[in-house]
Specification:
The structure holds two protein chains of two kinds.
Chain A: H1 2-35, H2 39-44, H3 55-64, H4 69-100, H5 106-116, H6 121-134, H7 142-145, H8 152-165, H9 168-176, H10 181-192, H11 194-210, H12 213-218, H13 227-233, H14 243-276
Helix pairs in contact in A: 1-14, 3-14, 4-8, 4-11, 4-13, 5-8, 9-10, 11-14
Chain B: H1 2-15, H2 22-50, H3 71-78, H4 80-111, H5 121-129, H6 136-147, H7 153-160, H8 174-202, H9 206-214, H10 219-230, H11 232-247, H12 251-256, H13 268-277, H14 283-312
Helix pairs in contact in B: 2-14, 3-14, 4-8, 4-11, 11-14, 13-14
The chains are: A mainly alpha, B mainly alpha.
């Protein structure tokens, strides 16, 4: 009797989960299918589950109107790769400074990091923009990369990871062997932090890739546009009736993300879970 | 207590190395500190300062502190559009967060159930979390296309099912537009919240659950008496981080309906952006609005700070 009840409950749960999974996929499926259909087909029936054959044509219309996905791809890749590298390296270094050494301002410093962790880009943007504008650095990708050196939330995460993991005996042994402090960090500590670095690198990359606000404020030169700014162009009037090519543009911007996500999903899911565990 | 604390800190010092290396602690923090000062602290202070001035125009000329320094702040707080934006921001957040929390709790309870040991969990998690990593800008425009007038999949579906006679312009309806923005936020974030809760529940000492089993507690009792109280900190943490994130909602409302129709989806971030960067160049007003949001966020961060501090005491 109890067993029957349990299997009934399980069936219900699977049903709900299945519906939610479909809800997650369906909008993207619509997008990809419509990217392959002609505008006339979409006008007749906007809802279709099966792809058509207008991929090339939609792509041509799309790129014929100032939408250059390769430029966006290139700029987004440059920003995301460098920003990610800076964030994980310097956050690890800062975390090591907090964990491995005794210094007077350490506690205050760590408290400050927690305190400023949640300050979003939005509230500092007016001052940031004016500063960048005054030194003539708008439209420079470096202004989207260099701020990544100071990532308080990543430092916090790295510190939580390093604190129980680092054994000072290893550091001491390296000191006796005559290694300098900076060298110890690079050759001994960084490898220890690999799992944490991998996790943070994925999220930093995705955040940087998806960021719309800062690039939208700083970049006005078409050649410097990032992928999310490219996407925002699809909302413009020139695409108003080009349904197929709008879906094509949207698809082009997310297909790389979806593929990478499905390949790395195991690590990403584990990484999200780690972020929530208190240490 | 005092003696104990002293003893503990002595052990800690021995563990983390001698004071003679202290200078490296400072040295290795320098890059972070410099970048923080230049790219975060200075912009915040500068934004605050601009809030007290008459800085506006494409190329602001001579900038002066206003005769009444708080003019912009008073002005913003009495501007109906800003108040509307603030109200929208909170209501959009609330309408997305409550169902998000409930669904995430339900799913995390199901996925961590020790007797059911649900199969296929991995694939459910992957798919449910997926919208969270997709570019929000793309999702905003995708949903606009899905609900658009006269040609869109949703219109097509509803007409085919006979629910409506002809295509409707749903997005001109304020309530519907705001509901869709809330739904997008919900849809993008409940998977994330669920994963956080799952890891929290898995972190609870299993012996507590075993004891509950021995006492004959049923599922509901276990959930409300054991699971919920034990993830209280995580719940609070999620609440505060979600609220701070929600207060800065920009991509979706900006690109979905450009804040419209009739400012129904205008959030404070979109308001600030529009004041400064889309034609009006009112940097001073935008800065004042930013500082008001900053104050609200700092108050919330203070709560977060105490939650984490409590956590830190090992």
């Amino acid at each position: 009797m109890d067993k029957k009840k349990a299997s009934y409950a399980k069936f219900l749960i699977h049903l709900v989960c299945l519906l939610l999974a479909i809800l997650s996929i369906f909008p993207f499926w619509m997008m990809i299918v419509n990217a392959t259909r002609s505008t006339t087909e979409i006008q007749q029936h906007a809802l279709s589950l099966f792809p058509s054959t207008y991929v090339v044509q939609n792509f041509k219309i799309l790129t014929g109107k100032s939408f250059n996905p390769l430029v966006g791809l290139k700029n987004s890749a440059i920003i995301s790769v460098f920003a990610t590298a800076l964030t994980v390296y310097f956050s690890s270094l800062t975390a090591y400074a907090i964990v491995a050494y005794e210094w007077k301002l350490k506690k205050a410093f760590f408290s400050m990091i927690i305190g400023v962790m949640m300050i979003p880009a939005q509230v500092t943007m007016i001052g940031f923009y004016q500063m960048v504008y005054k030194i003539g650095m708008t439209n420079k990708l470096s202004m989207l990369i260099l701020p990544a050196i100071a990532a308080p939330a990543t430092v916090f995460y790295m510190r939580q990871y390093l604190y129980p993991t680092l054994s000072m005996e290893i550091v001491q042994a390296a000191r006796i062997d005559g290694a300098g402090e900076f060298r110890i960090f690079n050759t001994i500590v960084l490898p220890i932090m690999k799992p944490a670095i991998a996790t943070q690198a994925i999220f930093c990359f995705v955040n940087s890739w998806n960021n719309l606000f800062t690039p939208l404020v700083l970049l006005t030169d078409r050649k410097k546009y990032t992928m999310p700014i490219m996407v925002s162009l699809l909302r413009g009037d020139i695409y108003k009736t080009e349904y197929g090519s709008v879906y094509m543009g949207l698809t082009l911007t997310v297909l790389p993300l979806i593929i990478v996500y499905l390949l790395l999903s195991k690590y990403i899911i584990a990484g999200v879970a780690l972020g929530g565990v208190k240490s | 207590m005092g003696v104990f604390k002293w003893g503990k800190s002595m052990i800690k010092k021995r563990r983390t190395g001698e004071f003679k290396y202290a200078k490296y602690g400072y040295l290795f923090s320098v890059p972070f500190v410099v970048a923080f000062l230049v790219f975060q602290l200075y912009p915040i202070l500068y934004t605050a300062l601009i809030g007290f001035t008459d800085m506006k125009g494409v190329v602001p000329g001579d900038v002066h502190i206003l005769a009444n320094p708080f003019e912009n702040f008073v002005n913003i707080l009495t501007t109906p559009t800003f108040r509307k934006a603030l109200g929208n921001t909170f209501s959009i957040w609330l309408v997305n967060f409550v169902p998000q929390l409930l669904l995430a709790l339900l799913l995390s309870a199901w996925f961590t159930d020790r007797k059911w040991k649900l199969k296929g969990q991995g694939i459910y998690k992957v798919l449910i979390y997926m919208p969270n990593i997709i570019t929000a800008a793309t999702i905003a425009i995708l949903f606009k296309s899905l609900f658009d007038y006269p040609t869109s999949p949703v219109n097509d579906l509803l007409v085919n099912m006979g629910i409506i006679d002809g295509p409707q312009n749903f997005l001109l309806n304020k309530g519907i537009s705001r509901a869709i923005v809330s739904f997008i936020q919900f849809w993008m974030w409940y998977g994330y919240t669920m994963l956080i809760f799952i890891s929290g529940i898995l972190g609870i000492n299993p012996e507590i659950f075993e004891a509950a089993d021995v006492d004959g507690a049923n599922r509901l009792q276990t959930f409300f008496m054991i699971t919920l109280p034990n993830i209280k900190t995580i719940l609070l943490f999620t609440l505060v981080t979600s609220l701070i994130g929600g207060l800065n909602m920009f991509d979706i409302p900006k690109l979905f309906m450009l804040g419209g129709p009739d400012n129904a989806t205008l959030t404070t971030s979109v308001f600030i952006y529009n004041q400064a960067f889309s034609g009006s160049y009112l940097y001073n007003k935008a800065a004042a609005a930013s500082m008001i949001m900053f104050a609200i966020i700092m108050a919330l961060s203070a709560v977060l700070f105490y939650l984490l501090k409590e956590d830190k005491e090992e």
